[in-house]
Specification:
The protein contains seven helices and four strands; from the N terminus they run H-H-E-H-H-H-E-H-E-H-E. The chain has about 200 residues and is α+β, with helices and mostly antiparallel strands. The two termini are about 25 Å apart.
Length: about 200
Amino acid sequence: MNKILENIKNRRSIRRYVEDQIKDEELDMIIEAAIYAPTGNNDQAWHFTIIQNKEMIDYLNVEAKKIMANITENLPDDWFSINEINGTAKKVGIMGRSERIHIFHHAPTVIIISGKKDATSPLPDCCAATQNILLAAESLDIGSCWIGIARCSFENQDNIKKLGIPEGYKPYYAVSLGYKASNKNKAPKRNRDVVNYIK
């Protein structure tokens, strides 16, 4: 099978990591892949904050869970409103109140992906860069997980300043990275009824 297609099919969200830090050269390759993502109007409207400080990762976990714990189905915030349609707001609230859950899965490296607010398409640009991070990590046999609920950490603007995220950028997502401590699960069955053709 084509190696790129095989890599896409093999990648899974990994939520258990060994304690060892990933190598600098591997991290460099992952970031290089991110900055080669497609971008609207060639804005390259992303910024990557790499956190390898355990205390900071744990702090952001606590900050996110404070917000998550208070989520209700009536919360008006746009992001959570979308999740409420899918019935997940209650689940997010339960996760926030659980002492057992660490939103970054105790990963040794976390990357925060931020987008420039006044760019042509910052959110799609950051999504494309995030996908490149995930696929590059898999190609190096490094586990990864795309973490949307990390956004809760940034409800507090002071946290954005603490991380040195540039003025005019909005943090959208995080990715946890580390060497895999668990075997990859098989891919869930894919819905094939999602294509139509016009020839």
